[in-house]
Specification:
The complex is a heterotrimer of chains A (174), B (156) and C (666).
Chain A lengths: L5 H17 L19 E3 L7 E3 L8 E6 L4 H16 L4 E6 L3 H11 L6 E4 L3 H5 L7 E5 L5 E6 L4 H16 L1
Parallel strand pairs in A: 3-4, 4-5
Antiparallel strand pairs in A: 1-2, 3-6, 6-7
Chain B lengths: L1 H16 L10 H11 L18 H15 L4 H12 L14 H26 L9 H13 L7
Chain C lengths: L1 H28 L3 H4 L2 H24 L6 H6 L6 H6 L5 H21 L6 H25 L23 H30 L4 H32 L10 H26 L3 H24 L12 H25 L14 H31 L9 H21 L10 H26 L4 H26 L5 H7 L2 H26 L1 E7 L4 E4 L2 E12 L3 E12 L2 E6 L2 E5 L5 E4 L1 E5 L2 E11 L3 E10 L2 H18 L11 H5 L6 H6 L4
Helix pairs in contact in C: 1-3, 1-7, 3-6, 6-7, 6-8, 7-8, 7-12, 8-9, 8-11, 9-10, 9-19, 10-11, 10-13, 11-12, 13-14, 14-16, 15-16, 16-18, 18-19
Classes of the chains: A alpha/beta (174), B mainly alpha (156), C alpha+beta (666).
Chain lengths: 174, 156, 666
């Protein structure tokens, strides 16, 4: 009788989902800001605090916004990748120094190198909240119209750069 | 007297700088609202806590954000909306009710209806079942002897 | 050397488990007595080797052998001895070894207490448990070896997670695992019944005490976890519907359904295939829980460090065990038959309704726990399902079950009459309504939540009293004689049901009347919560064996009378540099006073959270009473192995019936 097969049927469906689940990451929170305009900000620059920078300044250009901090260990992991990218002059990288002390941040850049065109300071994390930042590092790819097209959660790995970020940047720039 | 004023001013300045605790002077209604909203939002860097319960930095920042918005006069719905716009539906501790979560919210009710339905069908089927045949005289005697052996104790 | 002995012992255990799993089952199918008799010695031998392996791991921890990777990752020389030993099961690998040890303890117990069972049944039961053991041992040896070496050895270890350095954490996993693993016995009995084609009331009688015992342990294990979270995590919460908590709660729900279902199968021979399905599902949920915690599929405070390879193995193991048993069920269950007949209104139908409600509740918890995974897998976005959902769904489902808890014991078997029941319970209904209406006023203020909770709790207690009174009235003799005449299982039931009532009272009153203040306190500042005055008397530095911290002093008084001084602490553990709050709790029957330190703020002041939680200990007290009820039920006469010979002669010599049946079958 088929009703005795029902438990088995339900179980098989469950196993299929669990198997798919093994390949997913439950801690990753995707951004709802994809394809939406990048939230507005105007923040002081790290090296020249009396000057400010706004996302509007980048209108018409494709650029990367990288969220980093001197207290962040994973940022060191992605740093060589960013340095390489900066040297290749493919796309400008701007840094958002998140909840950090300017002295510590400057010291960190001096020690490890500075891949950013410039960095801005978000002392209290308010701009971070607007961008849906929940961990460091995170990187946003923003297009010519000022819309966010991609968010990298966690360090930029060479694989992510090659497979996701560079192709997207090339597409946006053409 | 001036020293006292200075100390008092310093004390208030320090109280303003306090990060975690809500000063006892705060309006209890605002505080209650803030706490209730905080309990509806998930702390994203923690494993399974609301931002109200968590001591993570992001949670502290978001709690402050909520209080600022309450002070600006924003409604509960717009504050929650603010968070969802930035962090997605994931930040809501209570899942929203939309097409994707239809099965989630209606699921228990459906399960209950199904279970109850199966139960009633099953009970009806039993009614149609043949009754057990009555005991023969020998079996009846055996039953009485067994019951007598259990004397003083009722058979459940 | 010792770790290698441990590793070798595990390999030998695996070989014995294979013998134990394969030979007896084939032997039972072929009526080969020699193969069937392999079961007991193989099980006992396996136990010896697993115990040796466990001992080796514990020894490595106790002696700070940091050349063992597990010890280096989870222990430290500064860690006190009791926590070094507890660290044996604090990691994924170690906890697996504990799991297998528990499984072997239960298997040996089955081999000892089953002399009266038919040989094929014992062979099959022990065989199935052996197969489960094979799975876990293979898992350990292939993917999660606790004895893996770290060469060169670390100078010192990374320390046990400070959250685990606590007496509650020492006992919570063993209790919980005794429960999870205990359901494997019920599972094995169910499989044995399906394999052998023998599924009747006798089978239920054999299976029942094992199941009840497993249920008791699981109840205590969950209770300990909840109590631990309450005093350790620092904000007074005791249940979070965390995925791993749900993973332990689901087997409990099905386990509860199972012990009720077994009652019916034992008494009336009904619900046979349903009971078997429940037994399979209860253990399956235990295994599913194991998967959820260790595979990284869900996030939780409990989750062990994850590795996809492990997830794949467990999923495979799960599929084989559960898929196999459900296939066997689909094949064999249709032949089982319906059993005794009963009416639409009868104790059986009410127990069946209770089962349906518990199963639906369990299904809902499963749905809520796995739903984020479903949506993510189907690319429909990411949501999170938190306590608000579970609270909204669970309580309405359980309410009818609680109501039935009052009527069920009063209803007759086979055919009950609603009017008769109504007449009997109207007194209980009256008392409950009056209590619900009036008591909240006496306690503080009236809210619908409190009234509803008290209504349910009083209903359960009042109907239990009524049921007992009615039952006693059907006997003769003085009160003591009548009380003594009832079987222990009956008292067990009443006790367990009242335990639930106590639990409900605790939950209701805490949720209804707790008060909290989150304040900034300078030295000398005072705050009033729940009628108690708390004065902050400053903080001093302390040094522990493997931590340093700040210890606060909070003076508690009521109406000007000093009660005691509480000492909440904020610790930083030396090795992991993790800050930990140790709340200070004044525990009382009528409520807890709970203080935890937050952060230091300027001026020597601290942010402090102060709680008054009335009747919160009733939550765990209720669980303990439930477990006691279960214990009481399983020591019932009918399960005792040795029965005085004199009884068998009283019934006369016409049949050998009384002798055989009065020797209860386990």
């Amino acid at each position: 009788m088929t009703r005795f097969l029902l438990p088995l049927g339900v179980f098989i469906v469950l196993v299929v989902f669990l198997a798919i689940g093994l390949g997913l990451n439950p801690r990753e929170v995707p951004s709802p800001l994809i394809n939406k305009p990048a939230p507005a900000f105007q923040l002081p620059q790290l090296h020249q605090p009396d000057k400010t920078f706004s996302q509007q300044d980048m209108q018409g250009k494709v650029w990367l916004l990288n969220v980093w901090a001197s207290w962040c260990v994973s940022c060191r992991e992605e740093h060589p990748v960013l340095m390489e990218l900066a040297k290749s002059n493919t796309v400008p990288i701007y840094g958002l120094n998140y909840k950090d002390k300017p002295d510590d941040a400057l010291g960190w850049l001096k020690q490890f190198g500075d891949p950013y065109v410039l960095s801005i300071t978000d002392r209290n994390g308010r701009v971070g909240i607007d961008y849906g930042v929940y961990g460091v590092p995170e990187t946003f790819v923003i297009d010519k119209q000022g819309a966010i097209r991609y968010k990298q959660i966690g360090p930029v790995t060479p694989a992510a750069l090659k497979d996701k970020i560079l192709p997207l940047v090339k597409e946006l720039q053409s | 007297m001036r020293l006292l004023a200075l100390i008092t001013a310093l004390w208030f300045a320090c109280a303003a700088a306090a990060q975690n605790a809500v000063p006892t002077a705060a309006d209890p209604m605002t505080n209650k609202r803030a706490v209730q909203l905080g309990e509806k939002l998930r702390c994203l860097v923690c494993q399974n806590q609301s931002i109200e319960e968590s001591n993570a930095e992001l949670a502290v920042d978001l709690r402050r954000q909520i209080r600022e918005m309450i002070a600006e006069g924003k409604s509960d719905a717009s504050i929650l909306d603010f968070m969802v716009q930035r962090y997605g539906d994931f930040v809501l501790y209570q899942p929203p009710f939309n097409a994707a979560t239809l099965l989630l919210w209606l699921g228990p009710g459906l399960l209950f209806a199904t279970g109850f339905g199966v139960l009633v069908l099953n009970l009806r089927r039993r009614r149609a079942q043949r009754d057990e045949p009555p005991l023969t005289a020998a079996q009846q005697q055996q039953a009485e002897q067994l019951l007598a052996a259990d004397s003083g104790r009722e058979r459940r | 050397m010792i770790p290698e002995i441990g590793q070798f012992a595990l390999i030998l255990a695996l070989l014995l488990a294979l013998a134990q799993g394969v030979l007896p089952i084939i032997g039972a199918a072929r009526a080969n007595s020699a193969w069937m008799s392999v079961a007991r010695p193989a099980a006992q031998g396996q136990f010896v080797f697993v115990a040796i392996a466990f001992g080796c791991l514990a020894w490595s921890f106790a002696n700070n052998d940091f050349s063992v990777l597990n010890v280096a990752t989870n222990s430290n020389s500064q860690l006190p001895l009791q926590y070094r030993l507890a660290a044996t099961w604090g990691s994924h690998e170690g906890s697996l070894l504990l799991w297998v040890l528990m499984l072997n303890v239960w298997t040996v117990a089955v081999t000892v207490f089953s002399r009266h069972l038919p040989e094929e049944m014992v062979a099959r039961v022990v065989g199935v448990m052996g197969l489960v053991s094979v799975g876990f041992l293979l898992f350990m040896l292939l993917t999660s070896n606790p004895f893996e070496r770290l060469l060169p050895a670390a100078a010192d270890g990374r320390d046990l997670n400070p959250l685990l350095q606590d007496p509650g954490m020492v006992i919570h996993p063993p209790m919980l695992y005794m429960g999870y693993v205990g359901f494997s016995v019920a599972f094995a009995f169910a499989i044995a019944a399906l394999l052998g084609g023998r599924l009747d009331a006798t089978w239920a009688r054999w299976s029942r005490p094992w199941t009840t015992l497993a249920w008791c342990f699981l109840t205590l294990g969950i209770m300990l976890g909840s109590w631990w979270a309450y005093y350790e995590l620092g904000w007074g919460g005791w249940w979070f519907w965390d995925p791993v908590e749900n993973a332990s709660f689901m087997p409990w729900l099905f386990g509860t359904a199972l012990i009720h279902s077994l009652a019916v199968t034992e008494k009336r021979g009904s619900f046979k295939s349903w009971t078997v399905l429940l037994a399979i599902c209860a253990f399956s949920l235990s295994l599913l829980g194991t998967f959820l915690v260790r595979s990284g599929v869900l996030t939780s405070v409990h989750a062990f460090a994850t590795d996809p390879k492990r997830g794949i193995f467990i999923l495979g193991f799960l599929s084989v065990v559960i898929g196999g048993s459900l296939t066997l069920f689909a094949w064999r269950a249709p032949r089982v038959g319906l059993g005794g007949k009963f009416e639409l209104v009868s104790r059986e139908s009410m127990l069946l309704a209770n089962n349906v409600l518990l199963a639906v509740a369990c299904g809902s918890v499963l749905l809520g726990t796995l739903y984020p995974l479903f949506l993510d897998a189907l690319n429909l976005g990411k949501i999170s399902v938190g306590p608000p959902y579970f609270d909204a769904v669970f309580v309405p489902l359980m309410t009818p079950a609680l109501f039935l808890m009052g009527i069920g014991p009063i209803a007759r078997w086979k055919e009950a009459s609603l009017p008769e029941i109504a007449v009997r319970v109207k007194w209980a209904l009256g008392v409950s309504l009056i209590t619900a209406l009036l008591l909240p006023f006496a306690l503080g203020r009236w809210t619908p939540l409190v009234a509803f909770g008290l209504l349910l709790a009083t209903w359960i207690i009042a109907t239990s009293v009524l049921a007992l009174k009615y039952r006693l009235s059907r006997h003769d003799g003085n009160l003591w004689a009548r009380l003594g005449a009832q079987p222990r299982a009956y008292y067990g039931m009443l006790l367990a049901h009242c335990g639930i009532a106590v639990f409900i009272i605790g939950v209701t009153l805490v949720k209804g009347y707790e008060s909290e203040r989150d304040v900034r306190m300078a030295v000398g500042d005072s705050v009033t919560v729940g009628g108690y005055a708390f004065r902050f008397d400053g903080v001093q530095e302390v040094m522990g064996p493997n931590y340093s911290g700040a210890r606060g002093a909070i003076d508690v008084s009521r109406d000007g009378k000093h009660i005691r001084v509480l000492h909440p602490e904020k610790r930083i553990y030396n090795v992991q540099r993790m800050p930990m709050t140790e709340a200070a709790i004044d525990t009382g029957i009528f409520g807890d006073l709970y203080v935890s330190l937050g952060e230091p703020v300027s001026g020597g002041a601290w942010s402090v959270r102060v709680y008054h939680k009335p009747f919160v200990t009733w939550i765990w007290g209720g669980c303990i009473i439930m477990a006691l009820g279960g214990l009481c039920a399983l020591t019932d006469r009918r399960y005792r192995l040795t029965v005085r010979r004199s009884e068998t002669t009283v019934a006369g010599g016409s049949t050998k019936g009384p002798g055989a049946s009065a020797a209860p079958a386990g």
